[in-house]
Amino acid sequence: MAALAALALSVFALCSAEFALIGLLLDVSRDLRVSVADAGQLLSSYAVTVAVGGPVVTVLTARVAPRRLALALLAVFAAANVLGALAPSFPLLMAARTLGALTHSAFAAICIVIAVRLAPPARRASAIAWVSGGLGLATVLGGPIGTAIGQQWGWRATFWCVTGAATLGFLAILSLVPGSVTRETGGTVRGETGALKRPQVLCALTVTTVSQAGWFLLYSFISPLLRQATGFGTTATTVLLFVFGLGGFAGNAVGGRLADRTLRGTLITMLALLAAALLLTSTVTHVRPAVPVAILLIGFASGALVPPLQAWVLSAAGGSSALAVAANTSAFNLGNAAGSWGGSRLLDAGTDITALGWAGAVVVAVALVVTLVALRRGSAGRRSRFLPPYDLR
Q: Distance between CA 29 and CA 153 in Å, rounded?
């Protein structure tokens, strides 16, 4: 339990760095004398680097022992944030963010591998939930707290705080995570890349991308939806976004426990719930008391999908492939980008903003169909616990 908490703390530090800067772009643009649009590249380039660079770094470090790799990546991440805090110009700040982003996906992946290797067979999905819970906490607490610190003491203070959190995570992993953890693939590049060729891994990655795109199609425009179509004010909208984050955090914990009992059942149930929640949001847009319920359900279902999706891709890859998990992290980011792009295209075409929930539900329904077909063809449909390597052939 202590080792899992150390991993969660470290993931919290990493993900807080990504979210905290969202509310500080204006401060950065003023201090470094760039436009807000240019400052926004600190966010977009970070996401692209995570999606593309993560699997590359994971392959290049395939032979490094898990704990040693986690410590090395966390040290590089901390150094990147020191560079960001001291950066005298925008190009140097961009370089620091890029360096930090290169560690993001690979670090999250190796933390999940370590968690799975440490947990007993019947609790491995819950172990994944512990690690991904760090992401949930970063969304609910890390981002807002980092933004508040930056607004009070300057955006550079946020980088220093992230550095401190990463240092604490480094010490926690060094003290609490055993160095005896190994990879089942033997830590070879061929073993890691070969896992991605398995049909069930490709299906799992597809479901992650499509399902993520479905709910993000709506969530990307949730603020204008709440304010323009529903009539909520700025404060109420902020509260509802916090409600969404709480729902995601709770869903992550529940999804891990349920996936330990039935991976197949959890995937199907939460995909169906997510589609229903998206439909509900569009249906009750003008019924203000019902909107918070719909927002909470989207957060819960989307959060509950993270552990089973990671468990699926990891088990399909053989049980401890860091590259498969890194690829799935990239799939989450790709889904975010695709959903945001799809929503903007629909709005540009004249689609009413209240219809985005319907469109998102259709996309999630496609992910549900792919899941049903894939699990029927594999052997995941049987009643069994999640035991990497799970027989999905």
A: 16
Residue-wise DSSP of 84-118: HHH--SHHHHHHHHHHHHHHHHHHHHHHHHHHHHH
CB 189 within 8 A of CB 62: yes
Give 150-206 pLDDT, tens digit per residue: 888 999 999 999 999 999 999 999 999 887 776 655 555 666 676 677 888 899 999
pTM for this entry: 0.78
Residues 315, 324: Cα–Cα separation, whole Å: 10
Of the candidates 392, 391, 393, 388, which has an alpha carbon nearest to the alpha carbon of residue 115? 388
Kindly report the CA angle at 104 between 386 and 197, in degrees rounded to 5? 50
Burial class (CB in 10 A: 0-12, 13-18, 19+), 36: exposed
Q: Degrees (nearest 5) of the Cα angle 56, 71, 54?
A: 15
- 181 near 320, Cβ under 8 Å? no
The hierarchical CATH code for the domain 191-377 is 1.20.1250.20
Question: Is it true that 2-182 and 191-377 share their CATH fold?
Answer: yes
End-to-end CA distance of the chain: 32
In terms of phi and psi (left: phi > 0; alpha: psi -120 to 50; beta: otherwise), the region of 319 is left
- Give me the percent of the chain exceeding a pLDDT of 90: 34
Read off the tokens for 381.
């449909």
244: closest CA among 190, 299, 197?
A: 299
Contact (CB, 8 A) for 327 and 55: yes
DSSP assignment letter at 289: G
354: its two tokens: 């209240």
Class of domain 2-182 (CATH, top level): mainly alpha
Tokens representing 161 are 């705080």
Q: How far apart (Å, rounded) are the C-alpha atoms in residues 58 and 189?
A: 9
**Number of residues in the chain:** 393
The domain limits of the chain are 2-182, 191-377
Dmax over CA atoms of the chain, in Å, equals: 60
